[in-house]
Specification:
Elements: H1 5-15, E1 20-24, H2 25-38, E2 42-47, H3 54-62, E3 66-69, H4 72-79, E4 88-90, H5 97-105, E5 110-113, H6 116-125, E6 130-134, E7 142-144, H7 154-166, E8 170-175, E9 180-182, H8 185-204, E10 211-213, E11 224-225, H9 235-253, E12 258-261, H10 265-268, E13 272-285, E14 291-297, E15 311-312, E16 315-316, E17 325-331, E18 348-351, E19 359-362, E20 385-390, E21 401-406
Parallel strand pairs: 1-20, 2-3, 2-12, 3-4, 5-6, 6-8, 8-10, 10-12, 14-17
Antiparallel strand pairs: 1-13, 7-9, 11-15, 13-14, 13-19, 16-19, 17-18, 20-21
The structure holds pyridoxal-5'-phosphate.
């Protein structure tokens, strides 16, 4: 019998006697399969930046996923999984001449772009390649809008793909990113309207693309907002909007159109958790007379919880499941004041009885944890990670968890 994802993670977290991040590979595989069943026509290219962990990448590649790589180093890591290079694209619009040449040498033939300058560089250093042009979105409705640094307008996309065609590249596609942890269906509707408009404008210039890249942005379900309130994105409705949008674009295009997606956090966030420990629960009077509790943990912004500016995480204190609670600001161990949930302004309930050394589990911490970990800010080393999977036989009833501990190298 298969244990559910939470039970698998709980077992691994219970077994951990020191700090680490635990990835549930079976949970990640299940999440990938669920995504395919919601969007069967979509070719998934996992956004590696969200979890560049070899075991995670390999389990996704083994199931048919490709990769959205943001640099030659990510391309090399993707290739180590054995994935065919045709299933890797260079999804970063920001790249140097040397980056482009190296990606081309490694065999990558599909590149994101959003400017005629970048197109000229791709034509020079990756001649004959396929390019897709990223359209700018507002990022509204997302916890992290990715709006200002990337993407161009509809009219510019026409210019960019026209320049690509003139330079001997294939103007192959359009892409969007609705913003990471997008919470609204409206953002997806607007993205599809923009894509439809741009397809029409391209047709007027005699350019027919063969695919649309819908980017990332699909949410995780296990987060709390800065105030500690559960984030509840309308995921089922989002999938329905995306399916409708794909139909809309196929109708506008008139010719066959493939769809690619680059999910990151959606595939991994809820299937990773951190085993950390309590440093201390304190109570301090501020200069204005207010008394505030602070709970300091061994893991914070610089060693696993980089996204704590926008999020707070569900905490489990396995030694204190009942008992009185106090409202405390949760913070990491470093001497940086940003190393606190909601920059130190949003207390959440924690058990009053916690003491130094008590284990604490930080849930839904599987995305952007290993990749945003510093190399040892303040002397706090990157967390090692452990991957577990359900190794029960299909016919059997015993469930065992297999895990190995690894510390990420540079
Ligand atoms: C180009 C691109 N694709 C995909 C992603 C993954 O986004 P998410 O984790 O929100 O799915 C990102 C995130 O920054 C990105 O920049």
């Amino acid at each position: 019998m298969y244990v559910d994802a939470d039970a698998r993670l709980s077992a691994a977290l219970t077994a951990a006697s020191s700090d680490r991040i635990v990835f549930d590979l079976t949970g990640i595989e299940g999440q990938y399969e669920r995504l395919l069943s919601e969007l069967p026509d979509v070719d998934v290219r996992f956004a590696m930046k969200a979890c560049p962990v070899d075991e995670v990448l390999t389990c996704l590649a083994d199931r048919g996923a490709g990769f959205d790589a943001a640099s030659p180093t990510e391309i090399e890591q993707a290739l180590r999984t054995g994935v065919p290079v045709a299933r890797i694209h260079y999804g970063n619009t920001v790249k140097s001449d040397a980056n482009i040449a190296e990606a081309h040498r490694l065999g990558v033939r599909t590149f994101a772009t959003d400017s005629v300058q970048d197109v000229a560089a791709i034509a020079a250093h990756a001649p004959g390649s396929r390019v897709f042009c990223r359209l700018a979105t507002s990022g509204d409705g997302a916890l992290w809008g990715l709006s200002r640094k990337f993407g161009c307008s509809r009219d510019d996309a026409v210019r960019v793909l026209d320049a690509a065609r003139a330079a001997g590249l294939t103007p192959a596609g359009l892409s969007v990113h609705v913003g990471s942890q997008q919470m609204t269906c409206e953002a997806w509707r607007q993205a599809f309207d923009l894509l439809a408009d741009t397809l029409v404008a391209l047709h007027e210039q005699g350019i027919a693309v063969d695919h649309i890249n819908l980017g990332g942005g699909l949410p995780a379900l296990g987060y709390l907002d800065r105030h500690g309130t559960r984030l509840d994105p309308p995921l089922d409705k989002m999938f329905a909007v995306i399916r409708d949008g794909m139909e809309q674009l196929r109708a506008v295009n008139g010719a066959p159109l493939d769809f690619v997606m680059e999910p990151g956090r959606h595939l991994v966030a809820d299937h990773g958790a951190i085993r950390a420990h309590v440093y201390r629960l304190t109570s301090r009077q501020k200069s204005d007379g207010e008394r505030v509790h602070w709970l300091y943990l061994s893991s914070g912004k610089f060693n696993g919880l980089y996204e704590m500016d926008q999020l707070s995480y569900r905490l489990v204190f396995p030694r204190h499941v009942d008992g009185p609670q106090v409202s405390a600001v949760v913070a990491g161990p470093t001497c940086d004041s940003d190393d606190a949930y909601g920059s130190g302004h949003h207390p959440v309930p924690v058990p009053e009885a916690v003491t130094s050394g008590d284990p604490v589990w930080i849930l839904a911490a599987g995305a952007y944890a290993t990749s945003y970990m510093t190399q040892g800010f303040n002397g706090f080393p990157p967390l090692p990670y452990t991957c577990v999977r359900d190794t029960s036989s299909l016919a059997g009833t015993d469930t065992t968890l297999a895990g190995t501990e690894t510390t990420r190298g540079n």
